[in-house]
Design goal:
With 314 residues, the protein is α/β, with parallel strands linked by helices. The chain has eleven helices and 18 strands.
């Protein structure tokens, strides 16, 4: 028997519980993975919070989107996007229900883990990294652009900011004061969010901002972006979907009317894993929790200032 985390009803983290699950042997084209680390994403708690509506028929709700682990059983024809999969392979998986000790899943959702990348980082890079790659592509970030990243020390924002620097852009990033040193190390010019943000950014970039990437979703982030960026096609949000129709800015991801970017996100692993393995992309692990302390992990992430990825260790 294996263990998985489910939401037994809709509510706060108190509705999360470990349950015993059967893990079937792999069928054709499938593998079974023993999970060593699984990442928490804000969407995980939003799913059972009721923020997207409630559906009693979907309960108990399995949680988790991504993990890293080791193949412990494989069908002879199991072939992932990077080639055949064998028992003992260290892998990254993208699959619903990843908050578990073991999972059987189609090999198409299984990628090779670079040897020098930790389980924690491997489990937490692809959802936020794919989102960041999509944000840069959707707004056409190019050398010479001045880019404002809202939430530049967050999980998505820090990758978006580092990738924008790597693409030759000048990057200004909002963050709480205790994160400014880290942003400077990435080549990002930090600025504190809060009242007066537009003036602080103008003081840094009197010639204007070309692109704004919002990973925060506050009215402040959207309004400052609208004030400073002349071309609305070059403002993207992954949170403030309620502001996109009214303003003409781009919503990206799973929100209403948003561009899901399915293909670009699915392919982003090639660039992201190469960069992480080469030490050219920093993924901060803020905290790890044992899998059965998932409630505490969700409370920590829900606070909105985790300062990096939060990882569950089965
Ligand atoms: N649409 C999509 O495809 C998609 C994909 C992934 C994530 N998301 C969403 O994107 C958001 C960010 O995800 P994440 O994983 O990056 O979260 P995260 O790691 O928790 O980062 C949150 C960030 O928000 C900043 N922040 C918090 N309150 C703020 C405020 N009042 N003003 C300005 N900044 C503030 C934090 O800054 P400090 O820590 O410096 O205070 C931090 O940088 C979540 O809502 C998530 O659901 C959407």
């Amino acid at each position: 028997m294996a263990t998985a985390i489910v939401a037994t009803t809709y509510g706060g983290p108190e509705v999360l519980s470990p349950v015993e699950i059967d893990v079937p042997a792999p069928g054709p084209g499938e593998v079974t993975v023993r999970i060593h680390a699984t990442a928490v994403n804000p969407i995980d708690y939003k799913r059972y919070s009721g923020a997207f509506g409630t559906n009693p028929a979907a309960l108990p709700l399995r949680l988790g989107l991504e993990a890293a682990g080791e193949v412990i059983a494989a069908a002879p024809d199991a072939e992932g996007p990077a080639g055949p999969l064998r028992v003992g392979d260290e892998v990254i998986i993208r699959a619903e229900g990843a908050y578990a000790t073991e999972l059987t899943l189609p090999a198409a959702k299984v990628l090779p883990k670079p040897a020098d990348v930790s389980w924690e980082v491997a489990s937490g890079i692809l959802t936020v990294g794919g989102t960041a790659v999509h944000m840069l592509a959707a707004t056409g970030v190019a050398p010479g652009d001045t880019v404002l990243v809202h939430g530049a020390a967050g999980s998505v924002g820090s990758i978006a900011a580092q990738l924008a620097v790597a693409r030759g852009a000048r990057v200004i990033g909002t963050a709480g004061p205790d994160r400014h040193e880290r942003l400077r190390a990435y080549g990002v010019e930090p600025v504190e969010y809060g009242p007066g943000l537009a003036d602080r950014v103008r003081a840094l970039a009197p010639n204007g901002i070309d692109v704004a990437l919002d990973t925060v979703g506050t009215d402040e982030a959207v309004d400052v972006s609208l004030e400073l960026v002349p071309d609305r096609d070059r403002i993207a949000t992954i949170v403030a979907f309620g502001r996109t129709a009214e303003t003409g800015i781009k919503g990206l991801g799973g929100g209403p009317g948003a561009d899901p970017g399915t293909e670009i996100r699915a392919d982003a692993w090639r660039e992201l894993l190469d960069l992480v393995a080469a030490g050219k992309l920093d993924v901060v692990i803020s905290k790890t929790f044992p899998l059965d302390e998932v409630r505490l992990a969700h409370e920590f992430v829900r606070d909105g200032h985790a300062g990096g990825k939060v990882i569950l260790l089965p």
